[in-house]
Amino acid sequence: MYLPQATREQTGFSSAVATVVKSKALGPVHLVHTKAPLAGDDPFAGYTDPGDALVWAFITDGAIVCKRAYNDLENRAGHMNMNHMPRLSGFQMTPDFRALSIRMDRQALGLSSSDIDSIARTVFPLTEGLPLMIGSLASQTMRMSGDLGPASGAALAHSILELTTAFVDDFLGRRSAPETMRSNLVTEARQYVDLYSSSPALSAASVAAALQVSPRTLQKAFEPEEDTLGRLILESRLARARALMERDRGGLFPIGDIGVRSGFASPSAFSRAFRARYGLAPREWRERYLQSIAE
Fold this sequence. Notes:
Layout: E1 6-7, E2 19-26, E3 29-35, E4 54-61, E5 63-68, E6 72-76, E7 79-84, E8 88-93, E9 98-104, H1 113-120, E10 124-125, H2 129-143, H3 150-172, H4 177-196, H5 204-211, H6 215-222, H7 229-247, H8 255-261, H9 267-278, H10 282-294
Antiparallel strand pairs: 1-8, 2-3, 3-9, 4-7, 4-9, 5-6, 5-8, 7-10
Protein name: AraC family transcriptional regulator
Pfam family, one: HTH_18
Organism: Orlajensenia leifsoniae
């Protein structure tokens, strides 16, 4: 017996479609333990739509049917499958459904739309090989108590991404060694930026030095990507600034200090970049945000 279908809305899946038991963020990788929503669940443990992410679901109990335009795919306990969430029109769970999901940036694996479709049509047993290793690593990470340090979190995220990349390469069987190396270099650069974008000294050149490649090699690695490395650094800093302003519910921290703590060279540089990206000065954005959560 399946619960009523959860249907994707224009803005994604609503918070009521599943209950989050536990979650852990590891930079570019986000681990989420979910279960079927039932009466009596914590109302503040609602589901958060993963946006454009790729989601690898390791089913531990029950079953789920994922609905897409081209097929419906059932995934039962002891199996894994991958979904690009914007391509799902809906899903149905059994009441006993539980899963550990790994969410990662779609670009982290360098997959084309046809690659994603090929993988998403398949359910993989968790009996041996890389799916079992990836699921076990994610499960052990979730069982760790307390928060991981930045270096430990980055190392675990790197391991999960590397194992997933290897699994995808083996499954597709058509990615060349140079392309795999390029994709891995981009992934390492993204992880490094996530860790160190709060430093004003971070630049494309410093990332290349840290990864022990030339700036030109790193630049060429990013050419097939949607964003340049410089844009990636800027977006990471802006995301940090927004997160700081959202956590500062009392509006106590000076805007300039938030910008500097987020990696911008000066308050004026922060203000210019923020306005160019969001259409509002940081102060205006924070005022509107605080008003919205007070209503």
